[in-house]
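A sample follows:
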Amino acid sequence: MSVRDRLVDWLFPGLRETVDQHTFMLEANFDIHCLDLPAGAVIWEEAMANCEALHEDLLAGKIDRRGRAMSLIEVLKRKNIIKLREM
């Protein structure tokens, strides 16, 4: 941890966690909007959990937003929260 990071943590305790939480909320909202999902409580919770789980991979460049959105679809299908329309 750099001197700057330690200084920020000392001057503003809890700021980093608050910013991270807001980032997860924005990213979850982005995924729900772009996937055109109904914004119910269960889908919102799953999108938040998905964003938190994949946040480090997104920052490291291992996945992109499209990959994260597709993983959300897979989680929702696996838990039978959404069903794909038959074509």
